[in-house]
């Protein structure tokens, strides 16, 4: 696949907008594996379901607004090329690893690194290393080459449209935020809207960055094989992680007690700094699963929505194989953690 820096950078900005908004307004970290596990197996809170709804409905919104031609790669075609057994194995590993390691790429890499969390630095380093090793050891000869000389530069009109999407998303969320802050007695359903919109923005950001396409993800992980390397996802660091770091410094500077934008929420950012065996082993297991299929919890849910929108039953079966296996892995890991 060609190098798509503009689209991926714009997608990274949407990831930044969604995660930073959720953090400053609700005090919550956008850790998708934890939210997914909590909705299914633990607290079953409404805000968690609102986030999952936003992630799954992103493809429907993108299709309705005609945004699909802007998304690099072809996630559903890539998913169709991966066998069910491989997807199921990857799903189990991602599920177990994300629970033992207390997070995935969203919670640790996108959000944790920006907070300079020692646990997230270790987890990201471990799962990225094991993912790179796994991706470079599997099926490189059967993949089409990815010439890094192919640089896909969209037209001025498309670039303007990309950044208009980013601006509209920011304005829409801020308008709703102002309304809810001025009306703290708003209905419970309306209070769930910011969580849904943040997740919807995150979903579109994943699609626009190319992170929903397994081949594009594994192309980034295969930098040891120049013929298959796609450096696009490095732009997520510039569009997502670095702006998140600046935002976190701004909202935590000179504050003895953290306050949230919404009065019904409180600051819930993790404060643990210890590095234990569960974190390291879980991150390692997660990285193997991620490198094996190029999918983690967020992209899996977005692709689930995309398969429904396209009514592609073959791809839907593949995504369901990964998602159900991931659920089984999370459930198994939770049982292990409770038994310790």
Explain what this protein looks like in three dimensions.
The protein is mainly α and 340 residues long. The chain has one domain (5-265, 275-339). The protein has 15 helices and no strands. The radius of gyration is 19 Å and the shape is globular. The protein starts with a helix and ends with a helix.
Helix and strand succession? HHHHHHHHHHHHHHH
Number of DSSP helices?
15
So what's the overall shape? globular
The gyration radius over C-alpha positions equals 19 Å
Largest sheet: none
Q: Helix coverage percent of residues? A: 55-70%
How far is it from the N-terminal to the C-terminal residue, by CA? 45 Å
Q: What's this entry about, in short?
A:
Its main location: membrane. The chain has 340 residues and is an all-alpha fold.
